[in-house]
UniProtKB/TrEMBL annotation:
It comes from the Bacteria. Transmembrane segments: none annotated. Residues 431-553 form the Glucose-methanol-choline oxidoreductase C-terminal domain. Pfam families: GMC_oxred_C, GMC_oxred_N. Belongs to the GMC oxidoreductase family. Keywords: FAD, Flavoprotein, Oxidoreductase. SUPFAM superfamilies: FAD-linked reductases, C-terminal domain, FAD/NAD(P)-binding domain. The keyword Oxidoreductase applies. This is Gluconate 2-dehydrogenase alpha chain. The keyword Oxidoreductase applies.
Amino acid sequence: MATKLPKTDIVLVGVGWVGGIIAAELTKKGYKVVGIERGKERSTEDYFMAHDELRYADRKEMMQDLSKETLTFRHNTTQRALPYREWGSFLIGEGTGGSGEHWNGQTFRFLPYDFEIYSETVKRYGKGKIPKGMMLQDWGITYKELEPYFDKFDAMTGIGGEPNPLPGSPQVKYPNPPMLETPVTALFKSATKDLGYHPYHMPSNNLTQPYTNPDGIARSACQYCGFCERFGCEYGAKASPVVTVLPVAKETGNFEVRPHCVVRKVLHTNGKATGVLYVDTRTGEEFIQEADVVVVSAYQMNNIKLLLNSQLGRPYDPVTGTGVIGRNYAYQTYLGTAVGFFDKDFNMYAGAGALGAQIDDFNGDFFDHTDLDFLHGATIHITQLGDRPIANNHVPPNVPSWGKEFKDASVQNANRALIIKAQGASLPWQDNYIDQDPTYKDAFGDPLLRMTFNWKDQDRQLMKFMGEKCAEIMKQMGAKEVKMTGDEIGDYDIRNYQSTHNTGGVIMGADPETSALNSYLQMWDCENVFVPGASAFAQNSGYNPTNTVGALAYRAAEGIEKYLKTGGSLV
């Protein structure tokens, strides 16, 4: 029998970027907030002297335990889905801060085109440009409407950057200057300028100078140690929930975090939630936390799972294309790259998670797609993340993968290999979706999520085009030899890491028939449940998703306060 706890104003399911922003904003207004977190409570002290590549990068110390909860995967509906037993394609964090603790800090705003992608595509190319089965739709909100919330996230985290020189791109004034120029970024910028493109330093949430944000949170500058991705930042220089929004919420005295607790269901009746049912994993005890508002603020996949387990929203049907929970799952097409081998050395060990330069000339709809077999595009960038030795070992084409020749080539090219990557948009398809697995269950007996996903010709054409552009730039940079990928892409391989940029499944929009949420991230079917996060994206862009996740969280916080005052649907 579950123990019923005293009612609170707001209960959060997950305490990462989304939960942290909402907690900070609403506890400052005097509301009581309880955050339920599946992992442990983290602090900066946890990251002191934690530069252990084997433990954190290879053995995934900060990630969700797949032996207790995972998902199953298949390429299409004719296959039987099997469990994802070992982290590969993406990495879901746990503990306070969530995936916002182990990210790199590359922080972009989605383009105006992204939020109105259907309307803008039809306007420029006609409906015939959209392939059968591609489920493009507008988000129910515009870039202009989201701009103030982007500004809030930028100021809170202290982003450093420079204006994008590409004509037509949004011009953003960042609170801090960009990261340092290096020989690598300078070479990329020179080469792309010579080719007629528009390079700039990528916006970084690794602080470029000491900074105090509007909430009074003071943080130190990045040390360029190279331990960002898959690690927590011991300096607090990399923006994360643990060093930005969570201290603000705790300082109010109105915020309580309950770690090591897994929410199994949102409890609801007659179109309103009453609270959540959760398990304390240390004792096995079940509790009911009642609340006026439930915020489903976990990672994208966990949001989908919780709503399906709770029977909230209509499950998506891939045969008819109807229903909303599990719809429009998208990832990121990150397979177009060029590795260049040089005759000179670069210091690739030093770096930071968002130290890099890029061009947007082939992102969004900045270029003409009339004669191309794909829509949207990709950013093309070079980064200097800090090449840790276990994960980085590039050798030229035709070198054996073992033996003396391989070892000699590995040593020779350890600091002489550079990589240019294209991070491409992932657009939604009727048969790429997420639902409940009929066979496999988690440690609590609840169905696992089942992912049905594969690359389409859209993705293959996009990556071939971008791979060729990457190779063109690498040759212009003076590489003596170039190894390109993107020209031959088979099926999606869930074993190989690309990014933790999973999106969709609980998408926002203007029509309850094709979306689960309105523009305040409020559920159409349950007025006091809000579901911010990347699960709300109607498709994925060529950019990293965190800035847009943060902006939507600020928008949701505003909506929650309105709801607590007035009730009912906010649109």
